[in-house]
C-alpha cells in the first residue's frame, strides 16, 4: 500500500507585526501536508523555524525525501511511522507524523483521542500573546484583550519591570507568563524576578540561552521557570532537571504528536509541569497538541488569533477560553481536508 504525499508552502499574513527578543515578522510561513492511501486523506500543518536552522525549502526537501519512500511503501502503519521517524525532530517530521495520525483516524473510524486513550478535551484557558513594544503600546494591547485570565508577554532585556508594570496596571486581574526567548542573562533574571512575582507573573519562559543555563542550577527562582528552546524531546529531560520546573511541548520541536505524547508522560513522571505551546500558525497546527490539554498546567495555543484568516472549522477562543477541537478540522473520521 503506497501513500501519496503532497506538501505546499502557505504564507499566512498576521494581524499586526509580531516581535520577540530575536526579531519580528509580518506573516507566518507554514507547510501543509496531505497524506493519502487512495481512499482516505489525512493532513497537518507545520511551521519551519529559523532558530532551529529550518526554512520552508529545507522542510519541503525533507518531506520529499520521505515521500518518495512512502509512495512505494508496502507495510504496516507502524512501519510507516518508523520511516517518518528517520527524520530529525522538527517541522518536517511533525507534518508527516500528524498527517498520518489524521489518516489513521479516518481509516479506523475513530478519533485520535480514542486511539491514544486520552480524555476528550474540555474548554481551557489559553494564554494570549503580547509582542514586544513600548510600555505604553503593550499596556494598550493588554487592555484591548479584555482582561483575559492569562496573558503571555514577550520581553527582551530592556525595561523588563517597567513594561510589566504598565501591562499589569492595564489588566490587573490577569496572570502573566513572561517569555524571554533566550534574551536575558542570569543577572537580568535575578534583578527582576521578585518584582515580577508581585505583578502576577506566574511563569518565566526560557530566560537564558539554551545550553548556556548552568547558572540556573544554583538559583532558586521565586517564579517557576519553563524550558522552551532547551526542550525538544525526551532526550533533554535529564539535563533539564534542577534547572527548570516546567517544559514547553511544541509539535514543531518534538517532531509530531507521537513524541509529544511520550514527552508529556515522561516529563510528568520526572516531576515537571507541562506547558503546551505553538509557533505562529493556523488552527490546523494547534489541533494535534490540543488533545493533551488535560495534562497541562499552562496552555499557550493562541496562534490562530495572531493571523488574519484562520482555516475552516478552527478553534473558538473567546475571552481567553479555548473551546475543544472541532472534529471536522482534524483527528477524527469526520475531519475534512480543505487545502
Automatic annotation (TrEMBL):
It comes from the Bacteria. One of its GO terms (biological process) is amino acid catabolic process. Its cofactor is Mg(2+). Its EC number is 5.1.1.-. The active site is at 154 (proton acceptor), 250 (proton acceptor). Keywords: Isomerase, Magnesium, Metal-binding. Belongs to the mandelate racemase/muconate lactonizing enzyme family. PANTHER family: D-GALACTONATE DEHYDRATASE-RELATED, ENOLASE SUPERFAMILY MEMBER DDB_G0284701. This is Dipeptide epimerase. It comes from Paraglaciecola polaris LMG 21857. The gene is ycjG.
Amino acid at each position: 500500500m503506497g501513500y501519496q504525499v503532497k506538501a505546499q508552502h502557505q504564507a499566512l499574513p498576521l494581524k499586526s507585526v509580531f516581535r520577540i527578543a530575536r526579531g519580528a515578522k509580518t506573516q507566518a510561513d507554514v507547510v501543509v501536508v496531505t497524506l493519502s492511501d487512495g481512499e482516505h486523506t489525512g493532513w497537518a500543518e507545520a511551521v519551519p523555524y529559523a532558530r532551529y536552522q529550518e526554512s520552508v525549502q529545507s522542510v519541503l526537501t525533507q518531506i520529499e525525501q520521505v515521500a518518495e519512500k512512502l509512495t512505494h511503501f508496502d507495510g504496516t502503519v507502524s512501519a510507516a511511522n518508523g520511516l517518518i521517524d528517520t527524520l530529525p525532530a522538527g517541522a518536517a517530521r511533525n507534518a508527516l507524523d500528524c498527517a498520518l495520525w489524521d489518516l489513521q483516524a479516518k481509516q479506523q473510524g475513530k478519533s485520535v483521542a480514542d486511539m491514544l486513550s486520552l480524555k476528550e478535551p474540555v474548554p481551557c484557558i489559553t494564554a494570549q500573546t503580547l509582542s514586544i513594544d513600548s510600555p505604553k503600546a503593550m499596556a494598550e494591547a493588554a487592555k484591548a484583550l479584555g482582561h483575559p485570565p492569562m496573558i503571555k508577554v514577550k520581553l527582551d532585556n530592556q525595561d523588563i519591570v517597567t513594561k510589566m508594570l504598565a501591562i499589569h496596571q492595564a489588566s490587573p486581574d490577569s496572570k502573566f507568563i513572561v517569555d524571554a526567548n533566550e534574551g536575558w542573562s542570569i543577572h537580568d533574571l535575578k534583578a527582576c524576578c521578585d518584582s515580577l512575582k508581585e505583578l502576577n507573573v506566574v511563569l518565566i519562559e526560557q530566560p537564558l540561552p539554551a545550553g548556556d543555563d548552568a547558572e540556573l542550577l544554583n538559583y532558586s527562582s521565586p517564579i517557576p521557570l519553563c524550558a522552551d528552546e532547551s526542550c525538544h524531546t525526551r532526550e533533554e529531560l535529564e539535563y533539564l532537571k534542577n534547572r527548570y520546573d516546567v517544559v514547553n511541548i511544541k509539535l514543531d520541536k518534538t517532531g509530531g504528536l507521537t513524541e509529544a505524547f511520550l514527552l508529556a508522560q515522561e516529563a510528568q513522571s520526572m516531576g515537571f509541569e507541562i506547558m503546551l505551546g505553538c509557533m505562529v500558525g493556523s488552527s490546523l497546527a494547534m489541533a494535534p497538541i490540543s488533545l493533551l490539554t488535560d495534562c497541562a498546567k499552562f496552555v499557550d495555543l493562541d496562534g490562530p488569533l495572531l493571523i488574519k484568516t484562520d482555516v475552516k472549522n478552527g478553534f473558538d477562543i473567546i475571552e481567553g477560553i479555548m473551546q475543544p477541537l472541532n472534529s471536522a478540522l482534524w483527528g477524527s473520521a469526520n475531519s475534512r481536508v480543505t487545502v
